[in-house]
């Protein structure tokens, strides 16, 4: 199996784009003879004429034009691999904070994509309430946080907006009972929204649990022992949104917001920010390092 040398391909691309060996040699900081020898060996390896040397200015043959497209991609891929695996700007640790109710299904995809692109960066996920995540960011304990909020705070960026829905057990009927039995974590951002909506509508309610354990809340709701509120795209399979027209007040929408200490957080944080934007927009991230 014959192999193409990336250094030789780099010289080939330079000659093709700059229009001559002299300019390419200067650009690559090589001698003209070194570049000419590389081109000769490349043509011998492929057993093809890559350049038309009959005119005053060197030109590509049809075979040369075909190779140029491949050569550019191979050189670019080589440079990208070397930069991502050896650049110390992309080596270290990044801590991402996110509320538990927006972890699935998006965050695992983000972590996987980021780790594949930057294997030398250790990325850690910290899950907590929006209130506690803001506090952690202020103390410098996390590098970047996602939040669920009704309004954007200064310095943040809204990634998307999602309806907030009443949820109960699949096929459950507890939402019809009064007083309405609620289950929320003590620091859940949706708790005051739900309580205020019920009180403004005149619906009696009672809190059935006083806990910070998300699993306990989920179990109570799934067993049709309590009602809660979740973002529309984060409802687990064993729960369902209570239908509109059920007599329960509308809970509006919630913003998923992104915060970092500064707008320019450095290469690792900026690339993670890019992945998060793309993920919540439903688009693939175009990860490109800047030299």
Automatic annotation (TrEMBL):
Domain HTH lysR-type: from-to ranges: 4-61
GO molecular function: DNA binding; DNA-binding transcription factor activity
Keywords: DNA-binding, Transcription, Transcription regulation
Any Pfam family hit: HTH_1
PROSITE patterns from the UniProt entry: HTH_LYSR
Keyword NADP tagged: no
Keyword Cytoplasm annotated: no
Similarity remark: Belongs to the LysR transcriptional regulatory family.
Protein name, as recorded: DNA-binding transcriptional regulator, LysR family
Lineage, uppermost ranks: Bacteria, Pseudomonadati, Pseudomonadota, Alphaproteobacteria, Rhodobacterales
